[in-house]
């Protein structure tokens, strides 16, 4: 999962035992470096809050309550060895510094003299948190509605789930239907889970997901139209982040509508599967989608172009698509409407209907898109290095 260079990627800081003046100084120093709480907590409440919110850093007063500060630091260091612990005092004291370092504090600061040291320590805690081992986040987004984005996302998740822990998040808040494709009964909908996105962990996620027989775990859209809502971007980020810590693969079904929340999801995704069909309208919309991804800061090397419902002879060839989008087609999925329709109507995976079909074989091959392997089964010369020209790039 990629970090986002804004407040969502800033360090989350816990303040403990600081008086109002000290809190004010910390706010002034860390205005652009951290997400700070409303105020400082007393030592008696701080450990409970640390266990609940698991901040990246804790700034602890090493003043009159020296023993409490040392006990608190020792406890945090045992329970959260990766947390950055900063002891803050009104003046430097060699014995206090030594005592703090012995129990696990990584920095000792006085303000305003050590303002830059405090910034550096907190900034490093954010980098450490964002670089921790997390699951691979893969987003599927359609050039337009009806190109098979959900089919791609659900079936890719099923292929991965054979040997990995996989969760599928239905982020199509317009009319997501991942639950219908997989024929699973929604437990807590994704809308329900987003209301507590700031306090999710693996246990609460496991209690909320529906599990498909392929072992894919699913957070789906609610059944009732009245429950549909526009998601908050911060909540979606927190949900994806929690899933990336609990699962090896997080599949995001974006659909074709990109909002502030799903735009953020695309920004943090490690790989984006852009799904189109081989017709002029879909490819034209794929061009527009690429422009949007560029505006979001998504690099081309994160994008895999996938042509669904591919047939040997189409008006728009793979070479046409590559030339006009300036992007190589990474994979194709054969057009087999009879098998696909049967799978949809029966609530089955395509491989369960006909494992020998070209469509099932192509879907199984999608796993290769998540590695550095060469793209397979795609012919034609590489796209022009000049980029998006052809049909859509002029005028």
3D architecture notes:
This protein is of the alpha/beta class. Helix content is 40%, strand content 17%. The strands form two sheets. The protein has an eight-stranded mixed beta sheet with strand order 8-9-7-10-6-11-12-13, with helices on both faces. α13 (318-325) links the parallel β12 (303-310) and β13 (329-334). The protein is elongated.
Short description:
This protein is α/β, with parallel strands linked by helices and 395 residues long. 40% of the residues lie in helices and 17% in strands. It folds into two domains: 7-130, Response regulator (Rossmann fold, 3-Layer(aba) Sandwich), CATH 3.40.50; 136-370, Rossmann fold.
List the keywords:
Rossmann fold; 16 helices; alpha/beta; 8-stranded mixed beta sheet; 2 domains; 5-stranded parallel beta sheet; 395 residues
Average pLDDT works out at: 86
Instruction: Tell me the number of structural domains.
Output: 2
- What would you call the shape? elongated
Number of helices: 16
- Low-pLDDT runs of 5+ residues are 4-8, 373-382, 384-389
The main sheet orders its strands as 8-9-7-10-6-11-12-13
CATH architecture verdict of the largest domain: 3-Layer(aba) Sandwich
Helix content: 40-55%
Kindly name the structural category: alpha/beta
Order of helices and strands: EHEHEHEHEHEHEHHHEEHEHEHEHEHHH
CATH level-3 fold name of the largest domain: Rossmann fold
Question: What's the name of the CATH homologous superfamily of the largest domain?
Answer: P-loop containing nucleotide triphosphate hydrolases
Radius of gyration: 25 Å
Strand proportion: 15-25%
Q: Span from first to last CA?
A: 36 Å
Query: Which class of the largest domain in CATH terms?
Result: Alpha Beta
Largest sheet: 8 strands, mixed
Q: Please count the beta strands (DSSP E, at least 2 residues each).
A: 13
